[in-house]
Amino acid sequence: MSPQSWLTEGVSVTLSCEVRDSSTGWTFSWYRVVPHREGLTPALDINGYLGYYVDLLSDSSRGAGGSYTLSPAALHHTGVYVCRAERGEPANQTLYSNLQPLWITGESPPVSLIISPNRTQHFDDDFLSLSCEGQNDSTGWTMIQYTHRWSVSDCSSFWGSVTGSTCNIRFLYTSHTGVYWCQSESGGSSNPVNITVHDGSVILESPVHPVTEGDPLTLHCLLHPMVTSDLRADLYKDGLLIQNQTAGEMTIHTVSKSDDGLYHCKHPERGESPHSWVSVRGLSHSEASFSVLGLFSNLLAASPYLLVSIILGVKCYRAHAQTGENQSQNAVMEE
């Protein structure tokens, strides 16, 4: 795939499929990997065992030449893709390709994925709740998970209980580490979220969703509740120490794009947390316009008071000057 897996909607993405050591006479079909449901095609591995389920893309034929382009890429393209090739009569089919995840994020998804506790990293045995909350209607949404071990599955398949559009996982395992997103039968999608479950003693508390440029950002290093130790942790960004032997907290009051990066904690005795990417997104045109408008409105709101202050200042100055002038005239007349 070109470019990388995590992208912003509106870009162009090309998936390419090729047959090893052979390049002529093949036509290609394109599929999405999906949770199991009736009528789906099972994809078997080289030993004939079930690996995952696939759904043929409705426009798969346009990628028959080996390249399938999404332009522009949209939120609903989030998912995991595979291809396969065939040639000859009768058709000689290859196995399915490797799984290729594609994560698309947007500014205003039709539904938001809400996570509680609201952080990207969690201890094993923790409780986790994931909810799909729409702008108008939260019904009809399914929680989807992708992990390298279990492929693509829904909430009931990864030891969760479903209540409406909420998935509750009572006991987290490291196998729950993966990418989660909400998806509707009509193809709508939320922004995907990367969740890491750690079986160690230290995790990093960082925001689940991208932080908007100009907003504050606070990062915490957390120790497992069963661990009794001083929280003296070093904080790293992109492998470089940025804060050491503190109470495990750092606040950036106004974030910028330069704060994008991979963060983790390191405790002198209890080890390191996993690494989590903190993403900073720039202001959209509407947000930037709103910000300027807000500043202008604040100036307008303050201007009457400013104007009154200026008028009073001028009057006081004139009165003071007039008093001084009268005193000078009186002194002259007395002489």
What would you note in describing this structure?
It is a single chain. The chain is mainly beta and 335 residues long. Among the domains are: 6-105, Immunoglobulins (Immunoglobulin-like, Sandwich); 109-199, Immunoglobulins (Immunoglobulin-like), CATH 2.60.40. Helices cover 15% and strands 41% of the residues. The protein contains 1 helix and 28 strands. Strand 22 and strand 23 form a beta hairpin. The longest helix is centred in the last third of the chain and has 50 residues, at 285-334. It is globular and about 100 Å long. Residues 287-300 and 331-335 have low confidence and may be disordered.
What are the secondary-structure elements, in order, as H or E?
A: EEEEEEEEEEEEEEEEEEEEEEEEEEEEH
Overall CATH architecture of the domain at 6-105: Sandwich
Relevant CATH superfamily of the domain at 6-105: Immunoglobulins
Helix segment tally: 1
Average of the residue pLDDT scores: 82
Termini Cα gap: 99 Å
Gross geometry: globular
Kindly state the percentage of residues in helix: 10-25%
CATH fold type of the domain at 6-105: Immunoglobulin-like
| Main sheet properties | 7 strands, mixed
For this structure, what is the CATH class of the domain at 6-105? Mainly Beta
Judged by helices, strands and strand pairing, the structural class is: mainly beta
Beta fraction: 35-45%
Low-confidence stretches: 287-300, 331-335
Number of strands: 28
Rg over CA atoms, rounded to whole Å, is: 30 Å
